[in-house]
């Protein structure tokens, strides 16, 4: 065993420090005490007739007196106190009436500010307004035209379904039930960066560090060698310790990613982190702030998430898909005769990229995930 670590040791360094049996001395790291409070409740019997001068309703205190215009505090998702940093931008700090009055309005031609004529509702060019009266071009089968650098996921067949690649620094999530290959999806995503000479970080809340390295090595991906070369960091964290230290991790992660020079990061799985919070508003706030820290780190990130038990198309808590730039759904598909069960993948969304809307079969093999782009489910 290694010597006990002090409270000043960095969580990332503690996680990477190996003991004789491959585990960290989590008991030596005193968890940060965090005050939890729910400030998202208001008095339901407050006077709802009070209005501001601009016409916006005002909140009233418990005694029924007039107060400030309604706002949602520092949680952009309505979940109460969020990031401890008071300087963070709060998209809901302005009351609705003020925001509405400052919003641009459509001009007579349908455009905003008179810059581009459009349809009657201001949603872009009107049909027939293009060159020689032609309709605006569509991009169903074309690459998205932009200057954003793009990357491949690294999964055969799936990359063919994404026209032009995924924008760099995207936050993506792979949603699926048990056995659909979410961990393999994350490992294969990271393997692509390593094969291209880049570096990556794999944070696992479910498996041990040794198990992750062994799984990748068995597929011939040489993760142990990449780790020895200093281009890969595999970090296993206990979900409880991560939840207790989430504020510190959230603040340190951008700096650590930059110092390590990571091109890609995988977190497997975000569902275990979500389960640490019983209150829905607290859960939304913490997950939002954590995903925002990943975006601030400027690293292309892949999260994995358990699917909801009632439907395979949404995550367990229905949060991460709304915060992510790209969503991949892995699911079981059973025929009407129930004689065969197959795995299928679909792309729900990718911001700033065109992609196929089809559901395609895939297989899990010793070489990873292979998507059959030209095949149908049954």
UniProtKB/TrEMBL annotation:
Matches recorded under InterPro entries: Circ_KaiC_arc, KaiC-like_dom, KaiC_dom, P-loop_NTPase
Biased composition (Acidic residues): 1-11, 20-30, 40-52, 82-92
Gene expressing this chain: kaiC_4
Name of this chain's protein: Circadian clock protein kinase KaiC
Organism name: Haloferax massiliensis
Stretches for region Disordered: 1-144
Membrane-crossing segments per the record: none
KaiC domain ranges (all copies): 149-378
Annotated keywords: ATP-binding, Kinase, Nucleotide-binding, Transferase
Molecular function terms from GO: ATP binding; kinase activity
């Amino acid at each position: 065993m290694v010597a006990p670590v002090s409270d000043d040791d960095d969580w990332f360094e503690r996680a990477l420090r190996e003991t004789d049996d491959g585990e960290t001395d989590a008991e030596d790291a005193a968890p940060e005490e965090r005050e939890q409070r729910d400030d998202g409740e208001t008095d339901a019997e407050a006077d709802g007739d009070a209005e501001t001068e601009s016409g916006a309703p005002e909140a009233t205190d418990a005694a029924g007196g007039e107060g400030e215009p309604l706002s949602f505090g520092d949680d952009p998702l309505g979940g109460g106190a969020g990031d401890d940093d008071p300087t963070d931008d709060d998209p809901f700090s302005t009351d609705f009436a003020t925001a509405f009055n400052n919003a641009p309005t459509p001009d007579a031609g349908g455009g905003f500010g008179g810059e581009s004529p459009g349809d009657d509702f201001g949603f872009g060019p009107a049909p027939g307004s293009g060159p020689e009266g032609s309709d605006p071009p569509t991009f169903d089968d074309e690459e998205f035209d932009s200057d954003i650098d793009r990357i491949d996921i690294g999964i055969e067949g799936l990359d063919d379904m994404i026209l032009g690649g995924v924008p760099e620094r995207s936050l993506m999530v792979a949603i699926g039930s048990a056995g659909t290959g979410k961990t393999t999806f994350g490992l294969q995503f990271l393997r692509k960066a390593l094969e291209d000479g880049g570096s990556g970080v794999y944070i696992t809340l479910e498996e041990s560090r040794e198990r992750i390295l062994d799984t990748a090595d068995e597929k011939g991906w040489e993760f142990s060698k990449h780790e020895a070369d200093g281009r890969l960091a595999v970090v296993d964290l206990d979900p409880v310790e991560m939840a207790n230290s989430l504020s510190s991790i959230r603040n340190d992660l951008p700096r650590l990613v930059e110092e390590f020079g990571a091109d890609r990061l995988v977190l497997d799985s975000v569902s275990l982190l979500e389960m640490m919070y019983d209150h829905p508003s607290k859960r939304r706030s913490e997950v939002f702030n954590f995903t925002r820290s990943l975006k601030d780190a400027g690293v292309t990130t892949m999260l994995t998430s358990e699917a909801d038990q009632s439907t395979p198309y949404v995550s367990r808590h229905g949060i991460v898909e709304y915060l992510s730039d790209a969503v991949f759904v892995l699911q079981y598909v059973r025929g009407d005769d129930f004689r065969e069960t197959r795995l299928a993948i679909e792309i729900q969304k990718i911001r700033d990229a065109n992609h196929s809307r089809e559901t395609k079969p895939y297989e899990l093999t010793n070489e990873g995930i292979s998507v059959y782009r030209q095949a149908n489910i049954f």
